[in-house]
Amino acid sequence: MKTKAFQEYYTEDFSHCYGCGTNNEFGHQLKTYWDGEETVSHFTPTPEHTALPGYVYGGLIASVIDCHSTGSGAAALHRELDESDRKETYPRCVTASLKVDYLKPTPIGCNLELRGKIKELIGRKVVVDVTLFAEEEICAKGEVIVVQIPDNWNPK
Amino acid sequence: MKTKAFQEYYTEDFSHCYGCGTNNEFGHQLKTYWDGEETVSHFTPTPEHTALPGYVYGGLIASVIDCHSTGSGAAALHRELDESDRKETYPRCVTASLKVDYLKPTPIGCNLELRGKIKELIGRKVVVDVTLFAEEEICAKGEVIVVQIPDNWNPK
Cα angle at B15 between B14 and B17, to 5 degrees? Predict the structure, then answer.
């Protein structure tokens, strides 16, 4: 049986995100999985995602680090629950804070790997450390604070 | 005479960025201007830029804050030069570090305003503070460190 990605466990209402929503036909549809205690996503930027010729623009790198982290946070929160409280769907997180250090230019045209570690999980808040690799070199690092939204979410 | 945006002063080679390149037909084509001592950009996200229904995804917010800052850095560096050293084109900056605090959900469908302040300029490095407004409310804040690339830029 094929392993489902974290984002495939979001409810229909919460599957529209441009970065990772399975229902957003225009978006990146990032998919994240457990790999032992780490979380992993892969993404291949396309030529329009250029910054300077040959390299990926910073906004895309921030976007995939962001969605990798909200997904990792959701999966970590789901895993923490007692089995009796665990639904089939995952909770949904939003980002409180995103920090990305661009360590070297990220080449375009190759498959990027994002690896996440759950640094902290307290209540509804999860801190995720992310490393982005291109051709086995570290190009960027992220630290992202995500927060589980309430079931009756209404931001107004 | 119409005021040119910072991004319209980049050389042709450096005008391909998805976030702000005037030559990227698929991208956001963000445009930034001086407004006194502040820098200002406007951008209207489209429906596919959704996070949760009704709100803008975090990756887009990070992207426009990023390109607003590289543009602001370029303009600030250009302004610092002695008149005799000042070319018609602007220098080009890349991002070393991007920090975004998402203070409240950013509604989709309205025109966003980004306002930047040059916090620090030392040598080739510029630190830009950015505030993102939607309908006059602050939705996100950014602190971005950008660095001017050398004229003979070759990251390999």
Answer: 95
